[in-house]
Amino acid sequence: MRAAQLTAWRQPLTLATLPDPTPGPGEVVLRVLACGVCRSDWHAWTGADPDVELPLVPGHEFCGEVVALGTGVSRWRLGDRVIAPFILACGRCGDCAAGHQTICANQQVPGFTRNGAFAELIAVPFADTNLTALPDSLPPHVAAGLGCRVTTAWQALVGRAELRPGEWLAVFGGGGVGLSALLLGRALGARVVVVDVVEDKLTHAKSLGADAVVNAADTDAAEAVRELTGGGAHVAVEALGIAATMTGAMRSLRKLGRLVMIGMPAGEHTAMTLPMDVLYSGQLTLQGTRGMPAWRYPSLLSLIDGGHVDLSPLVTRTIALSQASDELAAFDRPAPPGVAVITDFAT
Questions:
Q1: What domains appear along the chain, each with residue ranges and CATH number?
Q2: Dihedrals φ, ψ of 296, to 5°?
Q3: Which of 82, 93, 76 is nearest to 31 (CA)?
Q4: Which of 111, 109, 123, 99 is nearest to 4 (CA)?
Q5: pTM of the entire structure?
Q6: Which range is the signal sequence, renumbered to this chain (predicted)?
Q7: Contact (CB, 8 A) for 76 and 128
Q8: pLDDT tens-place string over residues 29-65
């Protein structure tokens, strides 16, 4: 199969022909239909993620068609089109039994702990536990985001913050997961303000229905959010994993506000200095989130199938496998609006 391998930190991916994967017990092999290029892939590319060992095929936002079945797989057949969360939980441990698959101790993560989907084929473990049928109404290039960005935002808003209709949601970071939070927040009945430092991203967020946008490059973002929302947001999501946006998000909240950290802190950002006086005096709730358990797919897909949210504007670029390196390198600076999805694995 054709694949793009990470063979050296911060270097262009190596296009290579690798052996086709074969499914082990409980696994399926998918022909990859689409795979997103995510900021988390950039963390792996830079060497900031300790789980990554070279060489490795990146890619964790994927959907595909079942082309091979391992022993013990009962829910899937050849030709089925499916999606999967990027955290592939075992489905057998105590945490999985309690519905907390994202903290499964036996989890496997494509593109980080095993080869991912920057390739024509991918083997997916624990298939019966993790895979969900891809609705016919959802094009593969849009469905790719349901492996990470969209699902992570859904878990943050529904599973962690419990966002309610009529509340103000402040989104710090207008990248893929931030735009997902914007679209889903609006669908849930919230009013949304998006904060970023790139004017093009803010213009794009406004075109997608943001009630307000704030450019943190030329104003005190937290103060601006408090003024726009009449005292502060009820919920804030932080989508970059850095101290500046965490601090701004905390300060943007009204008392008893809830903050969910979606952004992945890596490298120098794994330790932060935060305004804990704001946490104390505002009686805030701070939570982290990572991924989404597979059992939450039905509620999200119902929202999409019902026409309550259109995710297609998230994808602004469909690219070839050979262009993935350029998209990874673009995260070194403010990236262009929207997300890139690999749909051509032959070139």
A1: 2-148+292-344 (3.90.180.10), 155-288 (3.40.50.720)
A2: -85, -10
A3: 82
A4: 111
A5: 0.94
A6: none
A7: yes
A8: 999 999 999 989 999 999 988 889 999 999 999 999 9
